[in-house]
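Section 3.1: Structural characterization of target chains.
Under the original work plan, the team committed to producing a structural model for every single-chain target entering the pipeline before any wet-lab resources were allocated. The record below documents one such target. The sequence was received from the expression subgroup and is listed exactly as submitted; it comprises 581 residues.
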Amino acid sequence: MIRTGRLLALLLLPVVLIAAGKVPSAYDGRRDGYVSYGGPAMYPFQLYGVAIDWDRDCFKGKAAACLQLAQALESGLGDLDVVPRAAMGYYKMACEKGHGASCAKASQMLSSGSTGFTNAALAGQLAARGCDQLKDQASCGFKAASMANVAATPEQRQTANTALDQSCAAGGDEACRVRAIGLMASNQPADWASAARLFEQGCSSRKAWGCLGLSEAWSVGRGTAKDLGRAANYARTGCTEGSGDRLRVCSLHGFYLSTGDASSVDKGEQFLSASCKRGDGEACNRLGDLGYQKPAGSRVTPKEAVYYYRRACDLGLPQGCGSLGGSYVTGWTVKQDVGAGYLLMKRGCTLGGSSQCKALEALKARYPSVPSAWFPVDPALPVHEQLKLANAMVESGRKVDGVNTVIRLMEEGHENADWLLGGWLYYGLPGVFDAPRKADALILFENAAKVGHVDAAVWLGMAYWYGDGVPLDRPKGQNFMAIAATMGDAKAEAILRSMKLQPVREANERRAQEMAEAAKRRQQDWSSSWTSHSAWVGSKSYTPAYSGPSVSSIIDNANWNQRINYLSGSTSACPRTNSYC
């Protein structure tokens, strides 16, 4: 006979095991969370279910709970959103409570800007704690890297290099990376050769940074012979097989593919598109060049080329500003405007582009009066700044100037310009668009939504779902809302879930009506008093509403990696819910 206590323990065992493997679920409750991430204030986010327990245990001093919550917030486990800054805050807390590897992780996130925020001083402090107090080798690498970043005198640089060499020899990956980059930046050929050896070691271990450095070395013959074929192979290895940050090496892989035959060019454009979307200016510029050169297999149109040049320029690449400026000077794809070209070329020169500086001097010689045109908004400013100034002009009464600025950006193919101009056309803008031009506005809204503009996609989703100003088309409305949801907008995700449940609600309502009619026919039946189903089929439909934009500014690294893995052939799935696919 089993004793009661033992039986209870056996019965509870599966429950304990299930609880240990639970994921955060909104059905288990929710609570606001706040964590210090190294910025000026506590960072707010939402906790669900078991994550509330992890948060409580973390603040009680349990490093394992801090780590568990950090990893969950970084990956978006269960119903948790992906919240990189909150994840970094919990890695920081895990470090402070004694988990050495978390010190390295927090230091890396703080120094790289992967969360959209940097704090070099705190990154160095956490790395020093992990290395000196917790004896974590990865932290030692970040500590040495932090020392190298702030070294100002020859003595400080020597001390930092010694620390980098020691950490690298002990297996510190970050120390090897920083040391290799520093050696390659030297003026001494012997240092270049040493850097190439470190890059080769890293690439042999399938580190993306190692393959990137090796590819760049072989492409110019720095520390190695010059061999573009080998450079292309190392770029391919780093992108398709490497670990770590693969953005730049995948851009290089896309570049080399885009120099091949038609099928290779097509494949290369896909890698370049993913990297451009994620913020690599050189990938954007290469896409622009492909649209200009039109090699066999290229799908980039001339208008898209101008868009890519603008994006490259906004990302700080001198060549992008120069190519966009050249488009204005010659009138290629955009309306010819030497003044706009001059100012864009000037920005490229200011950003350090030697060829843009030479082109600027040539423009001055050819057009002594440039810039002859008066621009209410400097066309060399980043797009978001131009649109902000243009909208302020319209609101202050300078409507024509503001609208003309937005039209110029719309002609460059920018989705935010489509959205702003579309709104003025749809609702009317007295003094410029006295009568609404809804058909033209819808074209602009759809152009913006199809390239991932969240606000435009939500607006169209709601409009088509309810037939508000457009023909009722619920499948089309759901498709547009799906675009907004894939871009990480939480409200759009909630609306999309509600849209998908609409057939279930309608079926329930029909069933409720049928049961109500049946109940009337059985009014004299004694059972009619308990057969009412209103409690479980009569609930009111949720009416989705949208009250304003809520756009994530942090790019989902997991989604980008999934796209690259799909293009590389290591996975066969790239779902529509991934904005990169």
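The CA atoms of residues 339 and 371 lie 4 Å apart.
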